[in-house]
What does this fold into?
Amino acid sequence: MSLFSDVYYEVERDAEFVLRERGSKFFAYVYAVRGEKDIKEKLDGLKRMYPDATHHCYAWVMGARGEAQRANDDGEPGNSAGRPILRAVISAGLTNVLVVVVRYFGGTLLGIPGLIESYGGAALAAIGLAGRVEKFIEEVYEVSAAFEHEQEIHRLIAKFGARVLGSEYTEQVCYRVAVKAGVGRDFEQAVGDHYQLTGKLVVG
It folds into this structure.
């Protein structure tokens, strides 16, 4: 039994939302991202699109378990912009995502509670439009057998709902398969219990 969930969620599509609050405009953007290079490209793109904006505040979460996180207030009072955006991402249970809220100041001070509400609200609304898709943390195994025992590999693939990433036929048949992390140990044990099969963890 796994101590952690092997399920995580990413945004289904990029999305945007505009919030108007006492003259200020908040343009919220949600992007699926794969790394810091993606994040930089999206931020640079929005700065080119809105070069005269007052602030470009953002937050991102990366990693299947959301292990990497960052929030940036871009000149707004501390924790009044980036942190509410980050809270919106975390409350939606999303990862591998960047949310940017671009603000044009409208002349009326909103105060810190107003900023928190506006940035967080704009982020939540955009995230709601982005939708989410279920993903699984996976471990990758290579499983080999003599040709006459290839069917045993197929049985294990079916039993554990593994995804076939590729196969190679040399002196033996070798399958590269992805298994949900929660059943990885059980899969490894099942391979070990088959004297006809050999297997090893490639990526955990």
Remarks:
- The radius of gyration is 23 Å.
